[in-house]
Amino acid sequence: MKEYFSKMRGSTRSPPGVGFSEVFWSWLGSVIGISIIGYLSSQYFEPRDLTLIIGSFGASAVLVFGAIKSPLAQPRNLIGGHIISGLIGVACYQSFGKTIWIASALAVSLAISAMLITKTLHPPAGATSLIAVISGDNIHRLGYLYAFMPAGLGAFILLIVALLVNNLSKDRKYPEYWI
């Protein structure tokens, strides 16, 4: 039992801090990426009872602008994770939506499993699957379109901005790999 609890202490030191340049480029990319998605959502999607912005994009921005070398931030993971998780979230809502807690638990756990199997693990996409279940009628009405718009399209916009901004600095390179 003691050995079990001793694992919870951790075994390494905290990561080193980052310089101002890293902070600046991460800030610039995220402000541009989320602004574009938010602007397009408010001007073109929301007037049509649609949306382009979902909460999981905030966490995706952290990865694709602040942790660009992470395997979790690479294009395959960003796009594939959101689309796969969106599809699973919609399927779980449509199958088990009368019991939200079951639909929610299955959506997230099946999304994690599918992302692991397909090598597209992207933690924010777990939220994408959950959003498909717990959101309101505007999201539910989209059905499987939700996986491609807003989830896939928004992730694609973040990817384009990440490619453009993350490579402006001579000290940054994105992506590490595509597939």
Q: What is the radius of gyration computed over CA atoms, rounded to a whole number of angstroms?
A: 18 Å
Q: Name the average pLDDT.
A: 96
How many separate helices?
8
Q: Describe the main β-sheet briefly.
A: none
Count of discrete domains: 1
Percent helix: 55-70%
Measured distance between first and last alpha carbons: 42 Å
Strand content: under 5%
Sequence of secondary-structure elements: HHHHHHHH
Q: Which structural class is indicated by helix and strand composition?
A: mainly alpha
Shape annotation: globular
The number of strands is 0
Uncertain regions: pLDDT < 50 for 5+ in a row? Answer: none
Pfam families: TM_HPP
Domain HPP transmembrane region: 17-175
Transmembrane segments: 23-41, 50-68, 74-93, 100-122, 142-165
Protein name: HPP family protein
What's the quick description here?
The chain has helices at residues 2-6, 20-45, 56-66, 75-96, 100-118, 123-134, 137-142, 145-166. By secondary structure, the protein is an all-alpha fold. This is HPP family protein.
Commentary on this structure:
This protein has eight helices and no strands. 41% of the residues are buried. It is globular, with a radius of gyration of 18 Å. With 179 residues, the protein is mainly alpha-helical. The protein has one domain (20-166). The termini are far apart.
